[in-house]
Design goal:
The complex is a heterodimer of chains A (253) and B (316). Chain A has 253 residues and is of the alpha/beta class. Chain A contains 10 helices and 12 strands. In chain A, helix 3 (92-98) runs parallel beside helix 6 and helix 5 (110-122) packs antiparallel against helix 6. Helices cover 80% and strands 0% of the residues of chain B. Chain B has a single domain (2-10, 17-22, 38-315), classed as ABC transporter involved in vitamin B12 uptake, BtuC. Chain B is mainly alpha-helical and 316 residues long. Chain B has helices spanning 2-23, 33-62, 74-89, 94-97, 99-124, 129-153, 156-166, 175-193, 196-202, 206-211, 216-238, 243-256, 261-286, 293-315. The longest helix of chain B has 30 residues, at 33-62. Chain B is globular, with a radius of gyration of 20 Å. Classes of the chains: A alpha/beta (253), B mainly alpha (316). The A-B interface holds A 48-50, 52, 70-75, 78-81, 84-90, 94, 98-99, 101-102, 105-106, 152 and B 63-65, 125-126, 197, 200-201, 203-208, 210-215, 257, 259.
């Protein structure tokens, strides 16, 4: 379990994340939703050590994140940010092999090669493993990065808006993969989403943030309710149930 | 495998250049000319190694392939130091004439300056590397301006001496200093070797590097200190020549097309040895000292730099 204890981040005097405490349940998909500027990405960055928190602490399986060695942390928690611009030209396979860096420090063992192979297969990338990343479409790139995270083989996988700039087909593809990671491999996935319908259909739990604070935290059924959502987004959000999915019809409200 | 072939052939060319420089037109002068040439070759190898190494590392840390470590202002500091010493103490003073003292003083001042700069910037925490570069540019410009100010005031004969220091030169290398530099750089390079593997990951960007378990801040700090030591030593030994690193680093990226820093750094080091030793041979035998190596290097480097800018603009 990841436990966030009264975590805060200030830019100047302005709090971006303020006294946030939340528990991430293991073996589930937890979605962070909320308006722009609510502090979701900042919170995720602090949990994954990309940003230093100003106050508070993060515990991963009861161990304080700040006391953990970088390498050990990288074997337990991985993070994928929304923009992954880089300066080097890599093939898919080279990128996925980087996922083994916390284990082998760049010298891949046979086991590492096997895991890289499996990750590529899992993401259906084996045929194009020698393509360069800058030749791929957005959806393929995102799959390559997720394959790297799978090769990193962490219990916790954090993703910051993985559906950004993806079309519907690829968004569904990515969400289904994340669902499989949880159901088949027992991973814990934490994801920042803007599309509440994806959050509603695919996640087990939803944490809603607003103005740097957690305003709602609970199972998906509890959060995807008109009253709860209108409180979060300050707009009227009717909900329709169809094919066992709760869909928010907010487009002309 | 193919890259190791490339490295091997480069090593052969480098060895060929060194042999040509050492033995061409020697006329049996094994006792006099050979040791002197050997010292020069060693100085060029040291310079080539430090500049190439420092530039590749620096470009990886800053994610920018058209920067050189000279942006941090170490070169300008060196020139300022030399100008001030000659202005206030005169060109006959021990610090100017005695090469050992001058070397140690310059190297120590430059390394201390770099450490102070880093300390000041990293103390606040969370400062980006670009802020460091910005401060480096400003401080460097400040140093150059003061140097120019004193160079205008200085006695014309003394200015000749200052001008000599403004360009890298391998013609009056002190043998003791070469050995000293070799030992220091060897020790630092051995220390740095085990961190090279992190550089591969650093080129994926800060967030990726942290995700993959690289202690980012501490590695970047260590690397910047190593860059500062290398640049300081080579500048104090032969003079400012950092622009040269831009050429060899980029040639190495184009030639090897890999992200593995052990290959990139080895490649650029060997290329810079070829360029320096081969170039110096051309300067001595073809131009018969009518020009200096750093003039040629700055000329070729400048042309290549413009080519890089145009190419980057097209792809970006």
């Amino acid at each position: 379990m990841i436990q966030v204890r009264s975590l805060s981040k200030f830019y100047g005097k302005k709090p971006v994340v303020e006294e946030v405490s939340v528990d991430i349940q293991p073996g589930k998909i937890t979605s962070f939703i909320g308006p722009n500027g609510a502090g979701k990405s900042t919170l995720l960055s602090m949990v994954s050590r990309l940003l230093d928190a100003d106050t508070g602490e993060v515990l991963v399986d009861n161990a304080d994140v700040r006391r953990m060695k970088s390498q050990e942390f990288a074997k337990r928690v991985s993070i994928l940010k929304q923009s992954n611009h880089m300066n080097v030209r890599l093939t898919i396979r080279e990128l996925v092999s980087f996922g083994r860096f916390p284990y082998s420090k760049g010298r891949l063992t046979e086991e590492d090669e096997r895991i890289v192979e499996q990750s590529l297969e899992y993401m259906h990338l084996t045929e194009m493993e020698d393509s360069f990343l800058d030749e791929l479409s957005g959806g393929q790139r995102q799959r390559a990065f997720i394959a790297m995270v799978i090769a990193q083989d962490t219990d916790y996988i954090l993703l910051d808006e993985p559906l950004n700039n993806l079309d519907m087909k690829h968004s569904v593809q990515i969400m289904k993969i994340l669902r499989r990671l949880v159901d088949e491999l027992g991973k814990t996935v934490v994801i920042v989403l803007h599309d509440i319908n994806f959050a509603s259909v695919y996640s087990d739990r939803i944490v809603a943030m607003k103005d740097g604070k957690v305003v709602k935290d609970g199972p998906t059924e509890e959060i995807i309710q008109s009253e709860a959502l209108s409180e979060i987004y300050d707009m009227d959000i009717p909900i329709r149930e169809m094919d066992n999915c709760r869909i928010c019809v907010y487009f002309n409200s | 495998m193919r890259n190791s072939m490339k490295i091997a052939s480069l090593v052969l060319i480098a060895a060929g250049c060194c042999a040509l420089y050492l033995f061409h037109d020697l006329n049996g002068s094994f006792d006099y000319a050979l040791p002197r040439r050997a010292i020069k070759v060693m100085a060029m190898v040291i310079t080539g190694f430090t500049i190439a190494y420092a530039t590749v590392v620096f470009q990886t840390i800053t994610h920018n392939r058209i920067l050189t470590p000279s942006i941090m202002g170490l070169d300008s500091l060196y020139l300022l130091l030399q100008t001030l010493i000659i202005f206030f103490l005169g060109s006959g003073h021990m610090i100017v004439v005695n090469k050992q003292v001058n070397f140690l003083l310059s190297a120590v001042v430059m390394v201390l300056f770099a450490l102070l700069l880093y300390r000041f910037l990293f103390k606040k925490g969370g400062q980006s590397i670009y802020f460091l570069l910005l401060v480096g540019i400003i401080v460097g410009t400040f140093f150059s301006s003061i140097s120019t100010f004193f160079q205008v005031l200085i006695d014309p004969n003394e200015f000749q001496i200052v001008q000599d220091r403004m360009f890298a030169s391998f013609n009056n290398i002190n043998a003791d200093l070469v050995w000293l530099a070799l030992v220091i750089i060897g020790l630092v390079a051995i220390y740095a070797w085990r961190y090279l593997k992190y550089l591969d990951v650093l080129s994926l960007g800060r967030e990726m590097a942290i995700n993959l378990g690289v202690p980012y801040d501490s590695i970047v700090k260590k690397m910047l200190v190593i860059v500062a030591i290398f640049i300081s030593i080579s500048t104090a030994l032969v003079g400012p020549i950092t622009f040269f690193g831009l050429i060899v680093a980029n040639l190495s990226y184009q030639f090897f097309k890999t992200h593995k820093h052990r290959v990139l750094i080895s490649g650029s080091v060997i290329m810079s040895i070829i360029a320096l030793v081969g170039g110096q041979w051309v300067v001595e035998r073809v131009f018969t000292f009518s020009t200096t190596l750093s003039v040629i290097i700055n000329f070729i480097g400048g042309v290549y730099f413009i080519y890089l800018l145009l190419k980057e603009r097209k792809t970006g």
